[in-house]
Design goal:
By secondary structure, the protein is α+β, with helices and mostly antiparallel strands. The protein has 12 helices and 10 strands. A 4-stranded mixed β-sheet has the order 1-4-5-8, with helices on one face. The chain binds flavin-adenine dinucleotide (FAD).
Length: 382
């Protein structure tokens, strides 16, 4: 078993880190303070990401993406975790469900999305259903020209500006869960689409989470993404791979936090000594380091299994996301404490990461849902 990354992934890491440090880092403070990422700036960042082969890095080459391995995606995730969520989005990590686009959809939908010319939101959650997809109410019924969709979605990242919103709707309420849903491509100018509002929230400033309704929204047949009744499989494919790259992001954020803590602990003096020379602070840093490394290995292992086509990647990815999302919360809390009062102030990015990390235990599967999934698997196995 090898614990070192292939050399080409070191090069990939260098490329992404340079993009993050040179293009994204200088914008962090403005985005945070204004809670806004200018549309032209966002477009320029996507273009830059596309020019270095980063945009759509997780999408297979035959669908026009970078086609990098899952292990490569974790490395990209680690570097993107060093910046804030809206800016990280410019690197073009896209839901793999889009690769179900077929025929003419490739031209008007997939190609411009993969090139970064058009943007996407991905809408599953509804007022009455988040963790429990069996509670989804958005309903699509066949009509003469295609489909009529009714229902509402909430907490949808980037839906305020997205050119396309992929929505999951019930197409056969009597079917078992696996064949109950279909994915549709909605445009914000579709008649019946009504964007309601942006939520006020704790972190992820500059990234809006919105609510919208579809009221007798008529969609032609070519807005079905993938096959009718196959929406569940498409979202599971997306979730299973997203969890692994996101575990990498949480590791990256924790690594950034630990670096800040070490820098501060070496500079700040109390009782005539640098903070770093006090054993209590050393223990805190050591705990952060061990947990960070454990999360990194879980993410790398899940990625290696995914790259080998091993179905064990699902359980491994669930473990990695669960552990890494909780780990980064603990690390952010401890690092804030190392900074003392300065950690609570907005002069350092620690308080921003503390707030941003809190959402990681909720999005892409809450910690409770992940524990349920891990428990189900291990109870079956042993
Ligand atoms: C920052 C952020 C970005 C998001 N972006 C998107 C997006 O782009 N698209 C999208 O579709 N959604 C998005 N979401 C929504 C997110 O996916 C949901 O919030 C999440 O799935 C949980 O659903 P819920 O909020 O309805 O909680 P609920 O399902 O109502 O659950 C409430 C709490 O109860 C727990 N719980 C539920 N059932 C059980 C059980 N059986 N046993 C134990 N505990 C249980 C849950 O874990 C949770 O802690 C985003 C959320 C956040 C915070």
């Amino acid at each position: 078993m090898s614990f070192s990354l292939p050399g080409d992934l070191d090069m990939l890491r260098t490329t992404v880190r340079r993009y993050v440090m040179e293009e994204l880092r200088p914008l962090e403070r403005t985005v945070e303070e204004t809670d806004h990422l200018d549309a032209d700036v966002f477009r320029r960042l996507r273009e830059k990401a596309a020019s270095i082969g980063l945009y759509a890095h997780n999408i297979p080459e035959d669908a026009g993406g970078g086609g990098i391995s899952m292990l490569g995606q974790v490395v990209v995730g680690e570097e993107l975790g060093r910046t804030c969520m809206p800016l990280a989005d410019a690197a073009g990590f896209l839901p793999v469900a889009i690769t179900r686009a077929a025929g003419a959809q490739r031209e008007w939908f997939l190609d411009p999305v993969v090139r970064g010319e058009k943007t996407l939101a991905y809408a599953l959650t509804e007022p009455d259903a988040g963790s429990d997809l069996s509670g989804l109410r958005m309903r699509a019924s066949r009509s003469a020209g295609g489909w009529v969709v009714n229902g509402s979605k909430q907490f949808i990242s980037g839906a305020d500006i997205a050119d396309f919103i992929i929505v999951l709707a019930v197409t056969d309420a009597s079917a078992e869960l696996r064949s109950r849903f279909t994915l549709f491509i909605v445009r914000r100018d579709d008649p019946g689409f009504d964007y309601l509002f942006n939520f006020r929230k704790m972190g992820w400033r500059g990234y809006q989470l919105g609510a919208f309704t579809l009221d007798n929204c008529e969609l032609p047949e070519d807005r079905v993404l993938g096959e009718v009744g196959k929406g569940f499989a498409a979202i599971m494919d997306t979730i299973n791979t997203t969890r692994i790259e996101y575990a990498g992001r949480y590791v990256g954020m924790a690594d950034e936090l630990l670096g800040l803590a070490i820098g501060y602990a070496n500079e700040r003096r109390t009782f005539g000594e640098p903070l770093a020379s006090h054993q209590g602070i050393q223990f805190t840093l050591a705990d952060c380091d061990c947990e960070l490394e454990a999360a990194r290995l879980l993410a790398y292992r899940a990625a290696a299994l995914a790259d080998a086509g091993d179905p064990g990647m699902r359980l491994a990815g669930t473990r990695a996301k669960l552990y890494a999302s909780e780990m980064v919360g603990r690390v952010a809390d401890r690092v804030l404490q190392v900074f003392g009062g300065a950690g609570y102030m907005c002069d350092f990015p620690v308080e921003r990461m503390y707030r941003d990390a809190r959402a990681f235990r909720i999005g892409e599967g809450t910690s409770e849902m992940l524990r349920i999934q891990v428990a189900r698997q291990i109870l079956k196995q042993r």
